[in-house]
Amino acid sequence: MSSNPLVAIIFLSLFHVIGGSALGWSLRQFLARQFGCMTWFFIVWGGMFGLLPLIVGTAIFSQMHLTYLVGAQVVVLAAAIAIAAFVPPDFLQSFSSSNFIMLGLGGLFVLIGSAIFAFGGTRNLNTSLPASAIVIFVGGVFFVLGIIYALRNRGNPL
User: Could you say which of 22, 132, 141, 142 would form a disulfide bridge with 113 (CB–CB 3.0 to 4.6 Å)?
Assistant: First the structure.
């Protein structure tokens, strides 16, 4: 794992979001009284995928004396669970596959731009800052357009 805490928290947060989403989906199924093998599978899988990086992050950030980042990890995991569990179903239906592609690519570009800055930011600020800013801007545009199209499909005037 990198000695840069920004890189570590971004990397671990990816696993928290994926695992938390699986746990949130399972919670949604339980609240709807729709039990099944798939629900139990996502509890186990989401728990491992979301909670094991929390343990790793706790060890890493404790050695760096940055224990507040453990709290940030818990917030990311809890937010992913809450969003997946409690977002209204009609809002979820407004996301088509093209919206997910735009949101996914946008988020990925933002993360890649952040990684470009995190890895190159201390060595060569003249190239890493503009490169990361461009990639983050493009990703942000894709992400915002995905949200706008999802809200338009839902019927909200925007």
Answer: 132
Q: Is the pLDDT of residue 2 over 60?
A: no
Neighbours of 99 (CB within 10 A): 19
**Residue 123 — very low, low, confident or very high, per pLDDT cuts 50/70/90?**
low
Closest-CA residue to 18 (of 111, 94, 115): 111
Tell me the three state secondary structure of residue 35. Answer: coil
Q: What's the CA gap between 42 and 19, in Å, rounded? A: 9
Q: Give, in order, the Cα–Cα distances in Å from 28 to each of 24, 88, 89, 127.
A: 6, 10, 10, 45
Nearest Cα to 24, choosing from 69, 100, 82?
82
Would the pLDDT of 157 be above 50? no
Q: In the prediction, which pLDDT does 98 show?
A: 64
Q: Are 106 and 143 in contact (CB under 8 A)?
A: yes
Number of Cβ within 10 Å of residue 14's Cβ equals 15
SS3 157: coil
| 3-state secondary structure at position 78 | helix
For residue 92, what is the enclosing H or E element? helix 89-93
